[in-house]
Write a structure and sequence with these properties.
It contains 3 helices and 8 strands. It is α+β, with helices and mostly antiparallel strands and about 140 residues long.
Length: about 140
């Protein structure tokens, strides 16, 4: 009888690992960053022909903050600049995306205006010549 009890106990413990029984299982759904939004457009510049800009906002599922990646590429010479960091949405009369870059650059501000993402200057006024469109 003890042999059978020992056998069944070992079999149960062997079959009940963390994945099947839910112990210490890491929730990969909430730990995975997904692309929440992507915006892109072309900005006219003095230093090169035009600059293609693409911003990707990533976040964990259900979060209202996350990380971003901005890629800027000059069309005439292919110089590419990347900026990454964290973002959050400051709620208010008009929600504003606040971007803090890892490189220590100044904080950037954007707001959604219709189907466009509009950059705001340091005084949070719209920059008329700079807007991006949502990538579907």
């Amino acid at each position: 009888m003890r042999v059978w009890l020992l056998f069944w106990s070992c079999l149960f413990l062997w079959s009940c690992n963390a994945r099947q029984c839910g112990g210490n299982k890491k929730d990969t759904v909430t730990d995975t960053l997904t692309v929440a939004e992507q915006w892109e457009g072309t900005v006219h510049a003095v230093t090169c022909e035009d600059i293609e800009v693409k911003i990707s906002f990533m976040r964990k599922q259900g979060a209202d903050t996350g990380t971003y990646q901005m890629i800027q590429r000059c069309k005439d010479n292919n110089n590419t600049f990347r900026d990454e960091g964290e973002w959050y949405i400051r709620k208010g009369k008009e929600p504003v995306y606040v971007l803090h870059g890892d490189s220590g650059e100044a904080t950037r501000y954007y707001k959604v205006k219709g189907s466009r993402l509009v950059e705001l200057d340091a005084d949070e006024q719209e920059v008329d010549t700079y807007y991006l469109e949502r990538v579907e």
